[in-house]
Every structure is written in C-alpha cells, then in structure tokens.
C-alpha cells in the first residue's frame, strides 16, 4: 500500500495533482483545502496517501497530515459516505473542524459540506463521536511531512529506538498535557483550555486522554 509520496508536482487540475516520483507519475486526488495549500508546478511536494481499490478503479487520495488521513479513513467507514463526500467534509472543515464538530455532536457543521444531507451528517456524528478524542490526541505540531527533494523515492521509514529502562505507566499529568495540546490545536486559548481541562479532571481524576478531551470539549461547547 502506498502510504506517502514525495516528489515533484508536475501539474494541478481542479481536484487532483500529478506527482512525479523519479519518473513515475502518480495522480493524487485532494480536498479543496489541501489543493489550495500545495505549491506550484515544478516544486517539491509530500503528501500522506490512502489508496482506494475497487474492481474497476484505483485512486490515490492525498492529505497534508496523518490526522486528516485518519479522518478520511473513518469518514469512509460510515455507511453512505464515499471518497467524494469525505473530501468535501475535510475541504469545508479541515481536520480540526471535523474533530471539533464530531466530538461536540455538531452535525449541522458537517452538513455544511457540499453534498452532505442532514441524515448523513447525523449518521457521521453518531457513528464517529466516540472515536474523535483518540484522533484528536494524535495532533501535534510536527505531524506534517517536511518538504522533500523532488527526486526522493516514496519510502516508508520505521524508526526503532534503543532499548530503554522500563518507564512508569502514563500518569494523569500526561493525559492533562495531551488534552491541553489537542484543545490548543483546535484553536482554544491557553486559559480557557486549561480551565476546561482542570474542571474535567476534577470531575474524573482517573480519566485517560480521550475521555479528558471529550469532557473538556463538552464544557467548552456553547450553552443553550
């Protein structure tokens, strides 16, 4: 499976690009938001990819971050949501917006995407609500791939660390830090994020990262 491509952007179309990787051209479909963020023809580009295989079709879809790729895969798992609908949602809301909308049960935000009706939006929120915090916990400033040389081949790199002494199990302090980071990446200010996480932790001292994120988001949701 092709998980990432790094090469030179050959040309741009309305909904896809052609990436040249050492003489091999890959057609990669992207959301409007991702298309707008890509460089011009001839420049280096790197995208995480997801390969869709059907009996009569093979398509690559590109994403700037692993979080967005994960959301695409989750959205595609919902009945009635295909690749086109997933890209429309991600193009309208972005990975952060999708995380926030689904975690808060805000199906009207999902419905704002082109071609997404109210029933489909409600189904998406219902099916994926419990998965939102775990995806949000993946967020980190360094998740986006670094620009690559145009001639770089698509290589999956697995880093292995040297054996280290056994560490203590993650503490609630780690869960609090994870929650703060996720809320910060969603656009919440440090003070409001800290207050919400502190209140959520006070109500559930043993909560793990996903549970703490979910509880804090509920506290931050508009009332009424």
Q: Report strand %.
A: 15-25%
User: Could you say how many structural domains there are in total?
Assistant: 3
Please name the CATH architecture of the largest domain: Orthogonal Bundle
Q: Report the total helices.
A: 9
Order of helices and strands: EEEHEEHHHHHHHH
Main structural class: alpha+beta
Q: What spatial form do the alpha-carbon principal axes imply? A: globular
Q: Nearest-angstrom radius of gyration?
A: 19 Å
Query: The CATH topology of the largest domain, please?
Result: DNA polymerase, domain 1
Instruction: Count every beta strand, where a strand is a DSSP E run of 2 or more residues.
Output: 5
Sheet with the most strands: spatial strand order: 1-2-3-5-4
What is the highest CATH level, the class of the largest domain?
Mainly Alpha
InterPro entries: DNA_helicase_Holl-junc_RuvA_I, Hlx-hairpin-Hlx_DNA-bd_motif, NA-bd_OB-fold, RuvA, RuvA_2-like, RuvA_C, RuvA_C_sf
Main location: cytoplasm
GO molecular function: ATP binding; four-way junction DNA binding; four-way junction helicase activity
Subcellular location: Cytoplasm
């Amino acid at each position: 499976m092709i998980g990432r491509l790094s090469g030179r952007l050959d040309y741009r179309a309305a909904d896809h690009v052609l990436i040249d990787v050492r003489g091999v051209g890959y057609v990669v479909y992207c959301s409007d938001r991702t298309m707008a963020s890509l460089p011009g023809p001839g420049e280096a580009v790197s995208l995480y990819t997801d390969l869709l295989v059907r009996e009569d079709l093979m398509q690559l879809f590109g994403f700037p971050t692993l979080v967005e790729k994960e959301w695409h895969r989750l959205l595609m798992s919902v009945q009635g949501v295909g690749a086109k609908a997933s890209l429309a949602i991600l193009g309208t809301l972005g990975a952060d917006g999708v995380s926030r909308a689904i975690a808060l049960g805000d199906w009207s935000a999902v419905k704002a995407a082109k071609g997404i009706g109210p029933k489909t939006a409600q189904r998406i929120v219902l099916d994926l609500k419990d998965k939102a915090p775990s995806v949000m916990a993946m967020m980190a400033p360094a998740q986006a791939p670094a620009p690559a040389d145009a001639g770089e081949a698509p290589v999956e790199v697995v880093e292995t660390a040297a054996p280290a002494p056994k560490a203590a199990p993650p503490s609630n302090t780690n869960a609090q830090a994870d929650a703060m980071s996720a809320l910060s990446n969603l656009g919440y200010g440090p003070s409001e994020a800290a207050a919400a996480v502190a209140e959520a932790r006070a109500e559930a001292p043993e909560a793990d990262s996903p549970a703490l994120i979910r509880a804090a988001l509920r506290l931050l949701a508009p009332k009424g």
